[in-house]
Design goal:
This protein is an alpha/beta fold. The chain is built from 17 helices and 17 strands. The longest helix is centred in the last third of the chain and has 24 residues. 53% of the residues are buried. GO terms for molecular function: transferase activity.
Length: 450
């Protein structure tokens, strides 16, 4: 089933993938949903696409894919776990059901408190009382109207009647479409060039990936491409909030720069980066980075990857919220998935889509757009059917250690094999904003390194 689904993804994206060897030792996570299938297919598709670049074979182990789907739970800095959830984030009982608030970022927390008529500094008990006196949809509406993040728990039938569900229902799981008829690599680098093919695991060596993402799905996509050899440059800003643990654990193999897009200098630097990138990955609400839309439209040869919560017409959202809105977390109390499955699956599928588009650019030329959404991934997970909830997963053999500026890191090794070799990261996570807003080869020339 898994190998067939991987091949079907390749066909849908317009690329020919090598056969993928899938090994399954019976590892499972405690969920009725077929999480093991979603993990193996999404990881396997990305691995197969990278293998297709090199013309070699691909392998994926279900156990490794499942461990990768929980990587934030295994991540340690000097033996200590990273911070994942803020105090006010969580599920709250309402007058007629349940609602989830996402308060990991300060402005989202403040928006939720304003929506509930509470003062800054209110504690979880005050939020609990405020939610209990309102309906779930009222809390969702009030919070989102104030630019916060919340989702009422819906039944699957209620979700199917939601306009957002109808929008994503007819779209491909991974949409790969041409947007301009000509163009190759903006900087003239051939896909599969350089070291690729000689060391068997650097399919994306020389490929430039601009990372405009946060939290999990987008960063997982770009981290995966970094493991295949891509030069991934993450763009942030000093005042842009991040989840402390995740911003480190998802940054292996990347570089990080800060740009102030309110300044002309910052906008020029971003335009230079987009104009010379092979891939730009965005994971923001539709329209939030309009300047990038304008730049992408006129950059020939660019692969633009857009990850949203609810599709191109939807609003803000995160994995835990989409689980509630789509009914995936149904129950009383809600029963979330045993991992951020929608985030991780969408992340690996986005990496697959990006590489598929690069393969098509190599074969056909042109510029390409790749679109995915957490809500569409949730629909796919539901369509995979149900299995027996079994808690059987060992991370033995899947963890590595690396020194960094933050301390000694324990992390999950990249899953999959390409030509018999496991991909890997050649550098630890950088400090945010530590690098210049230039590509690695330009940075090396500027410093005389390499």
């Amino acid at each position: 089933m898994t190998a067939k689904l991987i091949q079907e993804l390749g066909t849908s994206a317009g690329v020919t993938l090598p056969e993928v060897r899938v090994t399954d030792d019976g590892s499972r996570l405690p969920s009725a949903y077929r999480v093991e299938v979603a993990a193996a297919v999404s990881v396997g598709a990305a691995t197969a696409a990278a293998a297709a670049v090199l013309g070699t074979d691909a392998e994926v182990a279900v156990r490794e894919a499942l461990v990768a789907f929980r990587d934030e739970r295994y991540f340690r800095i000097d033996g200590e776990p990273g911070e994942l959830w803020a105090e006010l984030s969580g599920d709250y009982r309402t007058a007629d059901g349940w609602v989830r608030l996402h308060c990991n970022f300060g402005h989202h927390r403040d928006a939720a408190l304003r929506a509930l008529g509470l003062s800054r500094g209110s504690d979880r008990e005050a939020v609990r009382r405020a939610c209990a006196s309102r309906t779930a949809l009222e809390v969702e509406r009030r919070v989102t109207e104030r630019n916060g993040c919340a989702a009422a728990l819906r039944t699957p039938q209620e979700w199917r009647e939601d306009p957002r569900a109808r929008t994503v229902a007819g779209t491909p799981l991974v949409e790969v479409a041409r947007v301009l008829g000509d163009g190759g690599s903006p900087h003239g680098w051939p896909l599969g060039g350089g070291r690729a093919g000689r060391d068997g695991g650097r399919a994306l060596d020389g490929v430039r990936v601009l990372d405009l993402t946060r939290v999990i799905a987008g960063p997982v996509a770009t981290r995966t491409m970094a493991a295949y050899g891509a030069d991934v440059l993450k763009v942030g800003a000093p005042d842009l909030p991040e989840v402390p643990g995740l911003v480190i654990s998802t940054a292996f193999g990347k570089r990080s720069c800060h740009l102030d897009l309110r300044s002309a200098e910052g906008r020029r630097a971003l335009a230079d980066l987009v104009g010379s990138a092979d891939v730009v990955v965005r994971a923001v609400r539709p329209g939030a980075l309009g300047i990038v839309d304008e730049l992408a439209e006129r950059t020939r040869g660019l692969v633009s990857v857009d990850i949203t919560a609810y599709g191109p017409t939807g609003g803000r959202g995160f994995d835990s919220l989409v689980q509630m809105a789509t009914g995936i977390a149904g129950g009383d109390p809600p029963r979330p998935l045993p991992a951020q499955v929608l985030d991780h699956a969408t992340g690996y599928l986005a990496a697959f889509g990006a590489i598929a588009a690069l393969l098509r650019r190599r074969a056909e030329g042109g510029s390409w757009r790749v679109r995915l959404s957490l809500a569409r991934t949730a629909q796919w997970l539901d369509e995979l059917g149900r299995g027996e909830p079994v808690d059987r997963l060992e991370a033995t053999g899947s963890l590595g250690e690396m020194d960094s500026d933050f301390g000694r890191l324990t992390y999950v090794l990249p899953p999959g094999r390409i030509g018999g070799r496991r991909p890997g990261w050649t550098s630890p996570p950088p400090r945010q904003g530590a690098d210049l807003p230039v590509w690695r080869d330009n940075a090396q020339r500027a410093t005389g390194a390499g």
